[in-house]
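== Sequence and structure of one protein ==
=== Format: two labelled lines per protein ===
==== Data for this protein ====
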Amino acid sequence: MSGAGQTLYLKLSQNSIVSEREVQLCDVAKLECTDIGIRRAVRQMEIWHFGSDEKRDRTQVFSVLYLIERIHKDFPELEIVNLGAPDFVIHYEPSPENRAVQYLKAGIVCVILFFGGAFTIMTFFQDVAVGEVFDRFYLRVAGVSPTGVTPLEVSFCIGIAVGIMAFYNHAGRKKITDDPTPIQAAMRKYEQDVDTARIETSSRKGNNIDVDN
């Protein structure tokens, strides 16, 4: 089939999650075409296959041009109109977590938030006197005044170190996961703002290169 005289409308989601290694076009996009045969064939078209490395090979970024090229191999004369994102991301998650595990994680987060909020309130009313808060807490729990370094200070120091590594997604020079770090995300946002400012400034000054009216 060449697809001559037919138009395929493609609407891509910017972020999609799949549970199978073989990714079909219908897993990441919605399609519409008056020719039912073309629409069915394109929907079942395999666009990517995730490898066996489940820890690293779980995220892939694509351009819509890759999909258009793939579709044109089977339907060279088919006109394709993209109504969605020009670039998109596919995440591969082979097995969804058990509901009990999800509840357990939610419970752990709630406990951390509860004690973290309580600690924040106590230090706020003590003018951020963390040492004094620890001394009073230790006195109430242990019944004696602390005479040196207590487990509270040790846990506090370890917690700060672990929290910083988890937040910035780095342990030394090694990234913990393949996800972009907050610094990388902020830099990409900064680059976009700079590019937008340059384009607008150049357009206002008439220095941009464009076709003649």
Observations:
- The chain has six helices and ten strands.
